[in-house]
Fold this sequence. Notes:
Four copies of one chain form a homotetramer. By secondary structure, chain A is of the alpha+beta class.
Amino acid sequence: MKNTFGNSITITLFGESHGEQIGAVLDGVPSGILVDIDYIKNQLSKRRPFGCISTGRVEKDEFSIVSGVFNGYTTGTPICLLIPNSNTSSKDYDQLKYLPRPSHADYTANIKYNGFQDYRGGGHFSGRITAALVAVGAILQRALEEKGIYVASHISLLRGIKDKSIDGLDDLVSVNCKAFPVIDDDVAVQMQKEIENAGEQGDSVGGVLETVVLGLPAGIGEPWFDSLESLISHAMFSIPGIKGVEFGAGFSFANGYGSQMNDAFVLEGDQVRTKTNNNGGINGGISNGMPIVFRSVVKPTPSIYKEQQTVNLNTMQEQVLEIKGRHDPAIIHRARAVVNALTAITIADALAVKFGTDFLNKING
Amino acid sequence: MKNTFGNSITITLFGESHGEQIGAVLDGVPSGILVDIDYIKNQLSKRRPFGCISTGRVEKDEFSIVSGVFNGYTTGTPICLLIPNSNTSSKDYDQLKYLPRPSHADYTANIKYNGFQDYRGGGHFSGRITAALVAVGAILQRALEEKGIYVASHISLLRGIKDKSIDGLDDLVSVNCKAFPVIDDDVAVQMQKEIENAGEQGDSVGGVLETVVLGLPAGIGEPWFDSLESLISHAMFSIPGIKGVEFGAGFSFANGYGSQMNDAFVLEGDQVRTKTNNNGGINGGISNGMPIVFRSVVKPTPSIYKEQQTVNLNTMQEQVLEIKGRHDPAIIHRARAVVNALTAITIADALAVKFGTDFLNKING
Amino acid sequence: MKNTFGNSITITLFGESHGEQIGAVLDGVPSGILVDIDYIKNQLSKRRPFGCISTGRVEKDEFSIVSGVFNGYTTGTPICLLIPNSNTSSKDYDQLKYLPRPSHADYTANIKYNGFQDYRGGGHFSGRITAALVAVGAILQRALEEKGIYVASHISLLRGIKDKSIDGLDDLVSVNCKAFPVIDDDVAVQMQKEIENAGEQGDSVGGVLETVVLGLPAGIGEPWFDSLESLISHAMFSIPGIKGVEFGAGFSFANGYGSQMNDAFVLEGDQVRTKTNNNGGINGGISNGMPIVFRSVVKPTPSIYKEQQTVNLNTMQEQVLEIKGRHDPAIIHRARAVVNALTAITIADALAVKFGTDFLNKING
Amino acid sequence: MKNTFGNSITITLFGESHGEQIGAVLDGVPSGILVDIDYIKNQLSKRRPFGCISTGRVEKDEFSIVSGVFNGYTTGTPICLLIPNSNTSSKDYDQLKYLPRPSHADYTANIKYNGFQDYRGGGHFSGRITAALVAVGAILQRALEEKGIYVASHISLLRGIKDKSIDGLDDLVSVNCKAFPVIDDDVAVQMQKEIENAGEQGDSVGGVLETVVLGLPAGIGEPWFDSLESLISHAMFSIPGIKGVEFGAGFSFANGYGSQMNDAFVLEGDQVRTKTNNNGGINGGISNGMPIVFRSVVKPTPSIYKEQQTVNLNTMQEQVLEIKGRHDPAIIHRARAVVNALTAITIADALAVKFGTDFLNKING
């Protein structure tokens, strides 16, 4: 359903990069959830440009919540959160009206919207829009944490450099506190150096984000067609730049034998667990009580300063394009906040489908 | 929405492996589409057990269409297709009631449905259910082909053995005719040998299916949240055993620079095309007129004959499990038909959202 | 979403009057509900032609449930219920291919489906399809009754003849047991006479069904856009022949003053109740704990034996039409079963949205 | 789906009467529609308090469109329209926290949202919210008019006083221009007098709005479950105060014979039309090319100045309530704008489902 996602809890996004305001409507949220403004700001800060590896547009992300919150708590009616756009420099983009940037949505938007799209800064396709998503998602993220359900993502791979895995709640909390989401600090330094190098060359890099959800009860998800993998991937593939999603062992399933990859059931006290977690916490589309583990690949930021070939849609001639404006050599560290927020929304929705509006009071004790 | 998927065209699946009948309801299909029974049978034949690498249950897949088709054409009202279950041997499964098979849905179904699930043969989670999907999907698959939109999948990777890529319509048509969907015949022999070896050891293998859609016009899909990647992945992750989906360059985006991975725009005659297709035909969630390319990883069949560890849910003791019954050492070649059918349904739905009920008359000339 | 209705619990209908089978898929039903075949048969019997006021096609309504039920209980996966068509006499309808019957769907179906519709006996528009709805709805109807939520409908008005109102559970149970759903037996005799008279003249009559739901807890429904009135009316207006729906005082609100029509709050023990129930148990779209009361008007059966004027769509000439075949002079008494079943499904869905999959265990003690 | 309505074109509403802002998101709108600010203002002016029969809160309704419009035209991405709340006097409502007003949503909101609702001025249940609906709906209303599809509503009944019917486009245009929507000017005077009288007594009145849609092509709507009646009634019953909806002859179907009520088909030139329009332009849930005619009953404004009985939810004692604040003795003339806007949205959505995103270019020549 286009710009709305979810069954019981729904998120609607609107806004353009250089429009007046961007925003989100989060509907179906239980009443009585504490809305912690500092928590929201903290999540937004993780999405903002970072140090010398993000040299771009500095957004203040001053948000306001104009509905659905009363006396600091959610009312149960739709929450609309707005973020005004400022610090926009639209003239940077004037040349792009007819010169679609390779691997951006400029060309497809032009076809789909028949030339009426707001082309400035990528319009509705801009990563800018994700700020509103991070902000409203934080409301649910915090509520889930209060119930022992934690979401975290780290950069598990970037140009061949690998981070170690998230191992338990301590790692998760620790990586959630870091501005650059990598567990191993030495690896973090290497990755940042790689990003800086790319930036110096006017180039860009991508990477893989690994997301872990701890504390999700077993029994969430559906066989057809709302498997937990379906819901999560549907959400993730909406985020600009994500081109692959895998759960548990993911693509390495292609090389192993069943006898190696199957997750044997074991007892931990009186709890049924699996010895390994190659299925990423999901069997038959339904959570099995183990950590949910998935990885999303983020492509290199398509905005680079190097010369590229494109087609002038006005003259219908091939033309060389040099992108101006402010662009990051990598967005993967910023995408972390978006992935976490959208994962929290998706998980909360799946819980609400099963447990109803009052799901927070019905889970985890 | 649980067992229904799609916006304008919807598919609903029902049935259990050892129940009376399985079936599907396909709704929103344009009126006046020819229903070619032989075409449907042909697709079903690709899903059936194959040669010595599929030693399992032989299903006749005799289907009947009980609604929505009149005088050989679709009426525009819901199409219900039924396949009776026969040749079921439920006693094979009696022990499984309390002994969940590792990496199967037995355990999660038991939690979710509170012990009321039909546990025989995996019940609603069985790959058996996909037969109805293949059959109704074939109706749209054929209709799309008439309009120049073709879907095909081949095994691109299996235990390190790689097939070459689908290169154009000839390869696509050729692989669609093969019982074992591999382009390079030598590679096919190696892969089959690998599967046979696994089977002889009572083990199983998985692999990667690469799917190509040719002829899809540019402009299909949405930025948020119904990107073409979101819709396709939502569909694919419903298929039992699929644990990863990537588009275009997919996870290898993590290693390249933007300058290497961006798809430059070029002119082919008066057509805007891209020089490379690392984005798999999709920019900003919207088709760009290039071939849609995605890969889905299928995990090794979890049913193996080797001893495995599980937990007896009755006694709550760990126990060794030996699976009986008839099981394939690989299902990836059979999954091909399911992936194609579900891709066709998803693509047709996205076209119907854009072009309306009468979409077939509005595309490709 | 076309032929599927509902949020958490969904119903999909398929089939044509003279097709092979009609049926329904009910999805999202909790696992562990007893499926009482006799209860279902009983509901179906109320939909069947009745005595001398229904001289039409006698259907056996032999149904089979082919999925979603195991050992007599729902499994939690989709329930598909099938009813084979028999006793069809398609030749009665041959003339209707180009001669649309006034006030039937023949003409609009022809436009919508471009001539490909199954025109025999009204095809997918036939009241016949409602048999499957009644049968699957009965599963939920019974489950709700076990939790103290009762649905009943009676004919409150027919050609100026009025029945008295349902006053409490005794009336409700009593009218649910009657073959002709009227509380006052004298009124029932008069109404039946009116129907017989119309039948003897080759004519038909309509009437008003009043539906009462007892035991629904307060707090069910949404302000925008899924008010309880919205959901119920959406459902009711799908039933062929229903042309008006009103809640509580309904259209008589147009004549009273606020001071007369407002429902004052009072205490009954420690329960908040309203003194009157002009709002039919719903304030602001949400149930208030009082009985839900609504009325649906059923138009006179459009199939009459008198000569009527139509347009021959083949010759595009006006033409006199004489309808043949078997038709009831009234369907309102049979529609009762359909209204009850669909109300039960709608109420169950609204409960499941609020309380989750396991709603039956969370309501009414 | 809660606060979102529609299939292809969706509307989401947010905001509370005394919150910061109210607003709407309209999604799925075709790109390239002219956004005429004066037209929107004109529709809003019809919703505003009127003369001496509306003595209430004067709202400026200064709206801003913050997304989805670029250079005066829709972009095809979600349109967010905001209206700031001003002139609120929340202290008027303080007593209402525990004293639910009869026939308002105060009590049900308190149950549903567990005391966390914004109770000031009815919060999310306030008629105030409809201002945003009127404003965004106007965008589609104007676009439909350009294609010859017109929507208008008039007060057909108010305390026994009847207006004549809308007879053709001239009447429709004329009533759309009037501040008090009644065709017969003498009737208008009588109705206004009736409203003033009620107001002087501290009381209120309701009435019936009759809505006509001209120019809708045949073939729009679905048999199950998205009949045109289902979609329209679903929308109408979301509007606060509407308690009944009937199509064509509506509840008077209960008194006529089939032979009197059936709409005979006739030819007008080469157009198939019906002689009468008792079915209100809809057969089998699908438009037949005749004017769509429906009536909605609006209950008397529940806010009256007379003493009423309620229950103090804090002390759980019965208590007399005297409502303060500013309230209209009738809202039906203002509701007209809401009904028209929501009808336009619903009709546009149904057209988009059939004809696709580009529906405006595919209808009516």
